[in-house]
Amino acid sequence: MHAPEVTQEHSTLTQTSGRPRPVLMIPLRRCGSHALRLRLNQNPAFYSPYPLHIIDFMPLLPGYGDLSQDENYFRLVVDVIGLQAASMVKWKDMVFDPVEIFEALREQKRSVHRILWELLLRTGEQHQASIVMDKSLDSVRYADELMDLFPDMLFLNVIRDPRAQVASMNRAIIHDYDSRLNALAWREAHEMAQQVQQRWPDRVLSIRYEDFLSNQEAVLRRVCSFFGIPFLPAMLDVTHSAEAQQISQLSALWESNCFPPLMANKDKFKQQLSLAEIEAIESICADWMQQYGYERMTAASCALDPAQLAEAREVSRVKRLQAWAQLKEANFKDFILRRFRADYLAQLATKNSA
User: Which listed residue, 16, 238, 331, 348, has the most CB atoms within 10 A of its CB?
Assistant: First the structure.
C-alpha cells in the first residue's frame, strides 16, 4: 500500500490553527502501536502521550444528559480530566484545571472528544511539538465526529498480520480470550479503517507493522514525511527512551518495548496458535489478508457457527476473570493500576445512574 502524498494543505492547516496538528492512530490495539509511538516520541516535533482510550468512557456519556447545560458539561470536563489522572501511565508535568479547561471550551462545539483533544493539544504544546497523536486506536469509530471537530486531522493506519495480532490479543486482558472473537474484532476494525481511507484518502497513511520490523528507518521516514516533520536517526534507538523503560516494567504486555523489535517475532503466532485457530482467523480475515499481502497457511474454509461464538463469549468471560486473578499474583503493580482505572469508570457509572 502506498503512502498518500503530503500535500501543501497539511502544512497550511497546521500553521493557520496555531496549535499542533492532531493525528489519530487506527484501528486496533496490539498492532505494534507502542513500538511506533515510542520511536516517534524521540522526535521533538512529535508528541504522543500514553493514550486514554476514551472508548471505555463512551458508555457513560448518556448519563451526563444535555451537554448544552453548563453544569453537565463541566461535570464531563472534570471526569475526563479524572480519567487522565487514573491512567496507568501519567502525562509527565501536566496538571489540568477543570475550570480553566471548561471556560476555554464553553463557546465551542461540545463533545467528549473536544475535551480529550484539548488535553492532548495542551500536552503537545507543552512539549513544543507540531504534531500530537492519540494512540487510542479504537477511536476510529468516531472518525466522523473527530473530522468535524478537527478538519486538519491525519490518520496513521497500522496494519498487522491478523494471525500475529490475534495471538497477541489473546494474551491481553483488554481483549477476548478466543481467536475467533478477536479475529472478528480485527475484521471490524479494518472495515472501519477502510471507510476512513475511502472518505479522506489524502489524510490516511497505511503502513504494515511487518514492513516496520524489516526496515524501521524506511517506514519511519514515510511516517515523518506524511506528518511533515523531519526524520531523525535518534528515532531508531528506543533504548534511550525513558518512557519505554518505564512502561516495560509496568506490564508484561509492554516488556519488549525497551528493545529493538525482532523480525523473527512476526511468525511467533505459529507456536502460539493451533492450526484450527489459524484457519479460523484466516477464514474470517481472508479478503483482508489478500488485500494487505499476507499469505494464508490454510484453505480458510472454516464456517462460523453462532452457537459456537456464543459459547466462546462465555468462555472468554470466565477466562478474563481468571486472568485478573492471575495478574494480581504475577504483577501487583499492573493489577492495581488497571483496577484503579476500571474502578474509576465503575464509580462514574454508579454516580451517573444515581
Answer: 238
SS (H, E, C) 199-216: HCHHHEEEEEHHHHHHCH
d(CA 139, CA 199): 16
Contact 280/170 with Cβ under 8 angstroms? Answer: no
User: Per-residue DSSP letters for 221-241?
Assistant: HHHHHHHT----GGGG-GGG-
- Note the pLDDT tens digit of each residue in 174-184: 899 999 999 99
Phi (first) and psi of residue 154, to 5 degrees = -115, 160
**Cα–Cα distance for residue pair 163/267, rounded to 1 Å:** 9
Which residues does 144 contact at the CB level (< 8 Å), separation at least 6?
none
Paired sense of beta strands 21-26 and 131-134, if any: parallel
Tell me the chain's radius of gyration from C-alpha atoms. Answer: 20
Averaged pLDDT for residues 66-94: 94
Q: Which residue has the higher pLDDT, 181 or 3?
A: 181
Grid cell of 319 as nine digits:
477466562
Distance CA 204, CA 154 (A): 6
pLDDT given at position 6: 35
- Estimate the share of the chain in helix, then strand, then coil, as percent rounded to the nearest 5: 65, 5, 30
First to last CA, the chain: 50
CA dist 154 and 22 (Å) reads 6
Model pLDDT, residue 222? 98
Percentage of the residues of the chain whose pLDDT score is greater than 70: 88
Q: Whole-model pTM?
A: 0.89
Q: What is the pLDDT of residues 312-342, one digit of tens each?
A: 999 999 999 998 898 889 888 888 988 999 9
Beta carbons within 10 angstroms of residue 129's beta carbon: 21
- Residue 86, number of CB atoms within 10 A of its CB: 19
Which residue in this structure is represented by grid cell 477511536? 139
